[in-house]
Automatic annotation (TrEMBL):
InterPro entries: MvaT_DBD. Residues 83-119 form the MvaT DNA-binding domain. The keyword Coiled coil applies. Residues 87-125 are annotated as: Disordered. It comes from Vreelandella nanhaiensis. Keywords: Coiled coil. CDD domains: MvaT_DBD. Residues 4-34 form a coiled coil. This is H-NS histone. The keyword Coiled coil applies.
Amino acid sequence: MSLLNEYIQKEQQLKQLQEDLQRLEGDQRLKSELEFKAKLEALMNEFGKRAADVIALLDPANDQRSIKPTVSSNANRRKRRLKIYKNPHTGEVIETRGGNHKGLRSWKDEHGDEAVESWLESMED
């Protein structure tokens, strides 16, 4: 796009925005909202309050939602127990805290879930 075409396009956009702005300025709803905002700000200034104070006063539940937890939700979660499995066929040992261990999964595919669970040697915290 040439610079001249870009200039003409921006000029048209500016004219459209100016028309939209004039139309909004004539809208009674906007005038009412601007008047409300001005009166509310004046009242807040008179009593030394901030917008957050007004929101907390009018919607206490919103104030509680805005407080972010200081500790992540995973911090309260109990650590999984360490499970130690020993394959009686190979003597291989697998230590895992979850059932998604690659070696354990291959044993279960090969020998079955019940058989592998019977190989559980110990559980530790």
